[in-house]
Known about the structure:
Number of helices: 9
Largest sheet: none
Number of domains: 1
Order of helices and strands: HHHHHHHHH
Distance between the termini: 28 Å
Strand content: under 5%
Number of strands: 0
Helix content: over 70%
Radius of gyration: 17 Å
Mean pLDDT: 92
Low-confidence stretches: none
Amino acid sequence: xxxxxxxxxxxxxxxxxxxxxxxxxxxxxxxxxxxxxxxxxxxxxxxxxxxxxxxxxxxxxxxxxxxxxxxxxxxxxxxxxxxxxxxxxxxxxxxxxxxxxxxxxxxxxxxxxxxxxxxxxxxxxxxxxxxxxxxxxxxxxxxxxxxxxxxxxxxxxxxxxxxxxxxxxxxxxxxxxxxxxxxxxxxxxxxxxxxxxxxxxxxxxxxxxxxxxxxx
Length: 216
């Protein structure tokens, strides 16, 4: 029954999962670099379509922009690492705006402490992994996004945890740039962690916004 509902009412979400799964098994397949780049961008791009079809209002529109920028970054990073990183940073900055618009009214000291740890620890670990200032500066935006997601009113164990998975996937990417040899973990885990994070963020925010629309 749940599978039928997914097919009938959320076809864009199902298509996104299929595209992400296909990319994971085909990313190192010689079917053509262009097709793989397009397949990679399609996964999160379809999450943007899902958000567009399932939400209304400014918060929904901002989420669509966040996901669209991430999809563009997924493709651009295969051609130019700096360009892809710039698009991801833009996505993080827009996401921070969304989360600040939806700050949680009441937070515990432990929640604030974890948000602070994400804000400071994300760029710190990135620098330790790479010894690169530019990567650390990018990671300031990444950590701020994760901290803002954790402090937002959206489901913490969907949206907040999804942002944390995004951070971990980027740390695995950065591990390739430094002396820490943890292969083959990055090849195995970067994409699943990243996509799972994006999926959790998208569905968590969409369901929250839809629930509020239905209640009005």
